[in-house]
Each structure stands twice: as structure tokens, then as C-alpha cells.
Backbone:
């Protein structure tokens, strides 16, 4: 009888410990994800603007992704807005969710990202506060555990789909080639 109760007790202890550990895990997890903040393309520019390593910043700036907010003020956009009862497309969630880094990747803090950045580095690569340090950046596996995203077709399809009022057929290969910014110093 006595043995049985003690077994019961230690089982209870184990479940309690389990619950405490799970809670601790969730708590630490929330701290880590809370540290994942957007820092803005200007920060990425510090290291990713050299022609010898691919000038990712310059290539992005010249791409239409960097113009995505501006596009929302174009005559075409304003015309669509007027016909659909949207007062200001540059302030409209329905448009910003694809034309900006609009909290797509689960990090709630916008941090240093500018509203004008459009579809920015961190829209595709994830919020950079945790992976931006040089030692982490040089180690792809580590950078990924810190939130760096290596974007694939699925990521593009989050925006290049028919929810876009101006949808055009999306072909991953041709579209990816148009925005490619590889590092020529890297042998793949
Ligand atoms: C302090 C310098 C520094 C900063 C700041 C920095 N990076 Fe990097 N990054 C590097 C270095 C060094 C590498 C490794 C060489 C390479 O792959 O170009 C790298 C690699 C990368 C890679 C390639 C990973 C791979 O191997 O496929 C991506 C993507 C990337 N950085 C994105 C960003 C983004 C987005 C930002 C801004 C949020 C940023 N980096 C900020 C230095 C930096
Ligand atoms: C957050 C939403 C979003 C994501 C994710 C996204 N895009 Fe885009 N993309 C846009 C928007 C918005 C435009 C239009 C920008 C403009 O014209 O102002 C665009 C435009 C483009 C264009 C230019 C089209 C043209 O004919 O001028 C290319 C190419 C492109 N995207 C490729 C890609 C690829 C490849 C991926 C995935 C690696 C991707 N995009 C991911 C929102 C996104
Ligand atoms: C589901 C994502 C998504 C949503 C939502 C979205 N867009 Fe876009 N938008 C895009 C993409 C992607 C492109 C580029 C399409 C391409 O070239 O393949 C684009 C292109 C455009 C263009 C350029 C069209 C052209 O042919 O020159 C305008 C203007 C525009 N969007 C306005 C808006 C407005 C206004 C809203 C809100 C009512 C909106 N978009 C909502 C993703 C979206
Ligand atoms: C529309 C999405 C998108 C945006 C915006 C974007 N990238 Fe990328 N990036 C990609 C894709 C796709 C790849 C290729 C991933 C792969 O290797 O399969 C890539 C690769 C890279 C690489 C690795 C290059 C190599 O050859 O190893 C670096 C570094 C990088 N991006 C930095 C940046 C920086 C910095 C910015 C902003 C200035 C930026 N990216 C903006 C989608 C994007």
C-alpha cells in the first residue's frame, strides 16, 4: 500500500517537473522570439553593399521590391483605391500586407525598419536583430537557428498570388532571376 502511494507521488512529482520545464521552455522561447526585431535595410547595407560580394543592397534598391510602398501612390493604385472605397492605400492593411514588411514572419516588433522600405531584406530573410552579428552571419547553420530565412518559392507565393488585385502569372525561375543577388565570392 505504502509503496503504491509513494509511486503515485513520484509520478505526480515527475508531471509537475515536466510542466515546470515546459513553462520554462515557453518562457525562454518567448524571450528569444521577442529579441527577433526588424533592424532595417540600412543595417544590412553596412556589410552587404560591396560589389566583390554581390552588392545585395544595391540590387535590392534597384528592384521593384524597394519601390513597393511608392507604387501604392501611383495613379493605377489610387484609381483602384477610389473604386474600392480605400481612402489611402499606403495606410491600408489590405495593401501593406504585401507591399511592406508587414509583420509577415511572426516577429511583432518592427524595430528599426522604415515604413518606406517596401518589401525589404527582412521581409524575405526574417528579422535580423539576432542573426546580424558577423560571427553568426558567417555560419549559415547558426544564422538559421537565429531566424535567418533562406527564401524559397513558398515564401514568394505568400505575396505573388491572386489576392493581389494586379496579379500576374508567377514563374519562380524567371522571377527569382530578376531579383537575384548572389555572392560571387562564394563557390556553391
Ligand atoms: C556585420 C556584417 C553583416 C551584417 C550587418 C549583415 N550581414 Fe548578412 N552576412 C554577412 C557575412 C560576412 C556573410 C557570409 C558571407 C556571405 O554569405 O555573403 C553574410 C551572409 C548572409 C546571407 C547568406 C546566408 C547563406 O549562406 O545563404 C544572408 C541571406 C544575409 N547575410 C542576410 C543579411 C540580412 C538580411 C541582413 C540585415 C538584416 C544582414 N545579412 C546583415 C555579414 C553581415
Ligand atoms: C511581402 C510580399 C512579397 C514577397 C514575399 C515577395 N514579393 Fe516579389 N513583389 C512584391 C510586390 C508588392 C511587388 C511589386 C512591387 C512594385 O512594383 O512596387 C513585387 C515584385 C516582384 C518582381 C518584379 C516584377 C516585375 O515584372 O517587375 C519580381 C521579379 C519579384 N517580385 C520576385 C519575387 C521573388 C522571386 C520572391 C521570392 C523569393 C518574391 N518576389 C517575394 C511582393 C512580394
Ligand atoms: C497578396 C499580395 C498583394 C496584395 C494584398 C496587394 N498587392 Fe499589389 N502587388 C503585389 C505583387 C506581387 C505585385 C507585382 C505583380 C507582378 O508584377 O508580378 C503587385 C503590384 C501592384 C501594382 C503595380 C501594378 C502594375 O501593373 O503596375 C499596384 C498599383 C498595386 N500592386 C497596388 C495594390 C493595392 C492598391 C493594393 C491594396 C488594395 C494591393 N496592391 C494589394 C502583391 C499584392
Ligand atoms: C524578395 C525576397 C528577397 C529580398 C527582398 C532580399 N532577398 Fe536576399 N535572397 C533571396 C533569395 C531567394 C536568395 C537565394 C536563396 C538561395 O540561395 O536559395 C537570397 C540570397 C541572399 C544572400 C546569399 C547570397 C549568396 O550567394 O550566398 C544574401 C547575402 C542576401 N540574400 C542578402 C540580402 C540583403 C542584404 C537584402 C536587402 C538589401 C536582401 N537579401 C533582400 C530573397 C530576397
Residues:
Amino acid at each position: 500500500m505504502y509503496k503504491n502511494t509513494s509511486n503515485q507521488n513520484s509520478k505526480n512529482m515527475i508531471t509537475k517537473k515536466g510542466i515546470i520545464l515546459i513553462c520554462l521552455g515557453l518562457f525562454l522561447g518567448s524571450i528569444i522570439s521577442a529579441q527577433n526585431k526588424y533592424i532595417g535595410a540600412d543595417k544590412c547595407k553596412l556589410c552587404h553593399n560591396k560589389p566583390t560580394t554581390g552588392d545585395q543592397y544595391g540590387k535590392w534598391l534597384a528592384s521593384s521590391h524597394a519601390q513597393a510602398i511608392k507604387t501604392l501612390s501611383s495613379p493605377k493604385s489610387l484609381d483602384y483605391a477610389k473604386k474600392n472605397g480605400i481612402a489611402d492605400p499606403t495606410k491600408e492593411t489590405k495593401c501593406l500586407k504585401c507591399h511592406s514588411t508587414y509583420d509577415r514572419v511572426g516577429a511583432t516588433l518592427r524595430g528599426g525598419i522604415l515604413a518606406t522600405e517596401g518589401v525589404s531584406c527582412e521581409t524575405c530573410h526574417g528579422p535580423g536583430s539576432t542573426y546580424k552579428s558577423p560571427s553568426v552571419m558567417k555560419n549559415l547553420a547558426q544564422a538559421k537557428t537565429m531566424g535567418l530565412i533562406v527564401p524559397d518559392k513558398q515564401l514568394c507565393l505568400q505575396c505573388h498570388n491572386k489576392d493581389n488585385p494586379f496579379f500576374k502569372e508567377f514563374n519562380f525561375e524567371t522571377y527569382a532571376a530578376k531579383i537575384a543577388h548572389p555572392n560571387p565570392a562564394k563557390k556553391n
